Amino acid sequence: MPRDKYLRLGELLISEGLITPSQLEKAISVQRQESGRLGEVLIKLEMIKEDQIVAALGKQLNVPFFTLGTGMLKPVVDQGLEHLILQEFAFKNNVLPLSRTLRSLTVAMFDPLDFILIDNLKKLTGCEINPVIAARSDIKKAIEEFYGKSAMLRDAVESSYDINTEILDVGDDLGQELSLDKLIARAEEAPVIKMVDLIIRQAIEEGASDIHIEPFKEKTSLRYRIDGKLCEIPPPAKHLHLPLVSRIKILAKMDIAEKRLPQDGGILVRINDRPIDIRISTIPTIYGEKVVMRILDRGNKVLDLNSIGFDAKQLEQLRKAINQPYGLVFITGPTGSGKSTTLYAILNEIKTPMKNIVTVEDPVEYKIDGINQVQVKPEVGLTFAAALRSFLRQDPDIMMVGEVRDLETAQICMRSAFTGHLVLTTLHTNDAPSAPSRLMDIGVEQYMLAPSLLVVVAQRLIRKLCLECKEAYEPTAEQLKGANIKADLIYRHKGCSKCNNTGYRGRTNICEVMPCTVEIQNLINQRATYQKIREAARAAGMLTLYESGIKKIESGITSLEEIFAITLGAE
pTM for this structure? Predict the structure, then answer.
């Protein structure tokens, strides 16, 4: 597009009140330095949103402007449009066929002045192209909905049933057995390679945290864990289970000949130039090996305390503790409650070049620049306790311990806190007031715990309502079940294509934050019961997990059903 067109676009945006003359001047200056289109520069500088500039461009060019929310980006389903423009071409060029009338094809695109693309579409379809304009992100979502996010996976699944394969009939034995050479050869076949790639890629695109591949007598099961819930996915053919597992084990540098013992490994994959770690675990079951792949997508994780779910008071109390020069900070909760993410967010906030930070983890989930991270290896004697003893000779300011599992690790943490170090760690307890009692139960002396403890945080992960489809309603007394909701209207889940019809999209935390006040220190010294410590924490203003959840309901973040399912109910 010629430069005067850009200037006219800029003037149009000014006349629409979307940018100021000074912003336009700055954007043109950046454009001259970095090249690129003016509209893209304005979006990059966050001076304007993509849909605003696309609407203005449509007005400028007198081209219809379509958006996803209005339903205008839904192609006609019975015209064979998916065969006219194939999925691969649509994704690659970000174009979407909408309708066909005789020899005229209406196509949604971001730049209706891309004459090369329009000419290619003419040759591809044999139609005259009638372009409409839409935001890139809207077109991408509409393409996914029209062609189907899992279309490629379904194609691979369907084709897997047609693959000629050599299988021994072993009845109810432990699965299909092939020679090692044949197993390796099968694992390297193109359909198997494609299948593994698509399973991993789709899981990452869906935001899954885990992939489960499970063998049963008559079938193989494929499930993704999305927002904490397992969802069934169209599975591959049963006879492909062995080659799939073998392919995954080859990638993870595991022993494919060993199927009788559990194994662990890892894969590093790149999706859109984003490195993603995948932890692999296999266990032998009566019908073959089950594989679980844990997806550790650092780019998809929020390592920011402001975005984890703490309210203002809780955040203030936690920040006061983590900025102390020494002491002990505990994050508690069951497996899968987001404890590690909170620890990483704390480290991300307090790290500076002036502090020496060391961590010992099992495993190291996310790599953070400027922090010395150690992975435990019990098979060579590198346990949590052994690593901690070595840390004390490394001149640390801050130490992070993945988990307190035994008395020796707990005692070293206490001594470290006594001798001028800030220690961050996790513990498995149901709530914050249980932590002191749990530590004393495993043998920690109260005279060591009371003066070293700064704060205990208990947390759970809850699903957030989908912003696209959540609906407001006035709950009945029966639905409230005694909950004290201050808001007149709250929200419930509904379900749409954006959230895979679950009504939820993404997760956040509900939290208890219990600072170790003088009164709580005294109670610990007296070996007081959990109930006494809880009463003192509540008197000092601590919100329970349930009360934290009620606040999330009142804010429209989650639903009554989700909080009732995660917490113990009214407290």
Answer: 0.64
